[in-house]
Amino acid sequence: MKKLITICFFMAAIFSVNAQAHISKGDYKCLLVPNSGNGLGGISCPACQVKLKKEKEAKAAEDKRRLDAAYAKAEADKKAREIARKKELAEQAERNKVTEVFITMPSSTNSNTDSNSNTSSSSSSSSSSSSSSSSSSSSSSAETTTSDTSIYNNMFVKENIRKYNEQKALENAVTGVVDLFTPSAEESERKSQEYLRKIEHKAVLGKSLEQKIEQAKNGDDQSYYDIYLAYEYSFPKDARYYRRLAYSTGNASVFKKEKRLENNSAKGLFIGIQSGEVSPAGISFIETTNNFGFVMSFRASIKKSFGDPSREKKGPNNRSTFTDTQGNTYTFISEATKNEQGRYTLSLGSSYHIFKPLFIYAGVGFGTVNTFSYQKKVDTYNKVETVKMDESFLGGSTDAGIIIKLGRRIAINGGISFMNLKYPEYVAGLSFNFFPEK
Fold first, then answer.
1. Where is this region: Disordered (predicted)?
2. Which helix (H) or strand (E) holds 254?
3. Same structural domain for residues 418 and 286?
4. Rounded mean pLDDT of 367-379?
5. Residue ending a domain, choose from 239, 263, 287
6. Which of these, 150, 153, 119, 151, lies nearest to 135 by C-alpha position?
7. pLDDT(20) > 60
8. Which of 43, 90, 246, 387 would be a feasible disulfide site paired with 224, CB 3.0-4.6 Å?
């Protein structure tokens, strides 16, 4: 009995030690189930087998995940290479202007091929001679297909060539227009260098005018004018700024004096021709000064008749009677038609200077106007005649107009002339200065 109890205690101690060793994963071996192929070099228990099975499953899952990742990476690399290849082909096609043409064969060719295959299958069952005929027909259909493909290829190639030529011509036209309005590199460089030199010159000029600017701020009129002259040639915008500043601050006396000097017109003696509507032949003498001058003109008619409906004058009323110097009595049956046949005028006046090239003139004088009226009359014997009645008169003339000097030697003039403040006549003339003043 004691031996049995001792053996039980001994076995319990061994089991407790092995369980502790198994739990703590020490160097002890599990002695419950012998298994030499478990890779532990000893005996394992069921718990160890479950653990080993889980570890193997986890390792297999990890290996599968790694294989899947490697396969996905390989597929992605393959797609990337395909995309890069397509991009390279597209770039090459753009450079060489080669367009890939995908041709769809006509349905008739497919139907013929199907019918040929059916015929060949049915005839092969009957005899070998029919199989040879079907092979020859298939070869002929292949030749037809090849020829059709070549025709379609040629058509598409010609169309692509035409489109390419049109696109190239348009690109060349656009490039030409852009180049026409785009300055060259040399021109741009020249302008940039010129701009830099201008900026440097402006800085140097501004530094040299610092004293003048200070004096101008203190109210010196001459300093404003000196600054204006310094900037006028190279920097007109700055020159105008200082001129406006001088006028706004009330320091523009030098500017006003210079303006008066510039506005002065040299004295001139102009001799030329002057022509009017009724009196086309005339001469003019014009003297211009800075203020008042002298103007004289003479015009005469050289033609016999100058009819103008605007100057018609009504004569006696219808059926009015008229007795001539011989005692003959007439009855007018129509109104008089006035016809001005000539004009001779002489006028004297003065010119006045407005600003440098412009003058105005006015003058008065006298003249004669040759005017006749034509009327139909009937005498006591009912004989109809046309009577010419002389209505010429002497009167006063009035002239007014403008004079424009074109330099120091040439001047033009134009205006209007009246007789007795009626019968207007437009006149114009050209004169030359034979004694210009410097």
1. 97-147, 306-326
2. helix 253-263
3. yes
4. 73
5. 263
6. 119
7. no
8. 246
- What residues contact residue 30 under an 8 Å CB cut-off, 6+ apart? 18, 21, 22, 42, 43, 44, 45, 48
**What is the domain-level CATH number for residue 337?**
2.40.160.20
Same structural domain, 277 and 380: yes
Tell if the pTM clears 0.70, that is, is over it.
no
- Written as one string, the DSSP assignment of 83-127 is HHHHHHHHHHHHHHT------PPPHHHHHHHHHHHHHHHHHHHH-
Residue matched to tokens 């008066």 = 260
List the one residue out of 284, 274, 280, 285 whose CA is nearest residue 300: 280
Sign of CA dihedral 211, 216, 218, 221: positive
Q: What would the two tokens of residue 11 be?
A: 């076995």
Residue 340's nearest CA partner among 391, 379, 377 is 391
Tokens in use for 64?
A: 């599968």
Domain final residue pick, 211, 238, 263: 263
Tabulate helix, strand, coil % of the chain (nearest 5). 50, 25, 25
310 vs 425 pLDDT, higher one = 425
Which amino acid makes up residue 387?
Answer: V
434: pLDDT strictly greater than 70: yes
